[in-house]
Amino acid sequence: MFDELERAIEPGLELGASYVELRGETGFIEYIQMDDGRITALTQRLERGVAVRALVDGAWGFVSTGDLARLEDAVRDACRMARAAAPTRKEPIELAETKTREDRVKSAARRDPRHVEIEEKVAYLKELTRVIRDHDPRIATVTAKLRTASGTKYLVTSEGARIEMPINLVWVYPWVTGKEGTRLSAARNEEASTHQGWEYLEKTATPEAVGIPAARRVVLQLEGVPAKAGTFPCVLGPRVIGVLAHEALGHLAEADLTVNSAFNGKLGQVVAAEGVNMTDDGTDPGNVGTSKYDDEGTPTSRVEIIKDSVLTELMTNREYAAKMGLRPTGNARAESYLYPPIIRMRNTFFERGDHSFDEIFEGIEFGYYCVDFRGGQAQMNASFQVGIQEVFEIVNGELGRPVTDLSISGIATDALFKIEAVSDEDFPWELGRCGKGQEAFVSSGGPSIRFAKGGIMFGGQT
User: Fold this and answer.
1) Is 319 in the same domain as 446?
2) What is the pTM assigned to this prediction?
């Protein structure tokens, strides 16, 4: 595909573009859904298309097309769009300089999911359903979803970049409900890899590894005591502190959103309690947000958002790096050739601290230990609300009864100052999807972190 993309660059330059970028993709995408052992959705499609961006007179034009025979026309259309938009801009767009690279990144997948028989995939979902149902007779329904993708993407720019990277995805998601008498509960689990192939589901995200945690959370909620409303000392476990890092804080540090967020104007200022560090890392080996280059061809990097309690860096693409006088961090990502790249997180997490896991519970007479979340949302003012699907009471420094129907909320930028202890434990990553007008696979996490009373609000019974 490189030859086709490179031939289309010249018409854009002839029309006055200062920069032309073409991202081509070829691939296979599959989705299967099973509801209580019955296949309710099964789709497969082949993708082949190109995204065109042209910078003309300081404005972007974007066109996506599946017609490679008319690729030069698409470039001309993008240039015309940019020229029409340019007079409406208050200031012209400029791009930060980056080193032009030519590279071919090889896939690490050993079993391409497109070559795995559909019967094997259906058998995996049947076994996942069986594992969940056999866990407890109170399991009422099981919905299991499986998504795979494989292919190649190509990047060519007028600056001379020429990069080829693999497309890999295996993703599994069970949604489980339970019932006991009049009590109902629900829980989910999600596992994914963007580096391995089908072997990930064979060796890591097995039906047992994916299904049992979801089933166990459903049962814990059926057996749990009602949550108390109010504010208490608490400990947020790795999966919950991860969603706080991503949803409530990470988005504030995406440079295109920072101007309207609670982090606006705070670079270089103390924004957290002593000893708090938070990072977005695009280089962590094998993680779902990791890649060698972003979708502008910039090498990914480690972005120290909060270092020693100070807001130190923002995540950028080339446009916002130039606009704000920052370095390009390699955070430009696009869901597919149908979308332009925008600033997105990759693997966002709190760094480990210096307290043992047991120490962070000491002295808590009553509080909550939040282990896993069901879903959450946050606003640019740092307010957040997260539903918790696995949580336990803390009584006199010890873990107590499971709790049901609990949610947490607060202002994340205020909660940062209520952090009392950060554990030194290794932590598992929470793997999932982020929406910002388009989907991106991301991971988040951190060690267990203790918050003082007033840091987190709990919803439940008064």
Assistant:
1) yes
2) 0.96
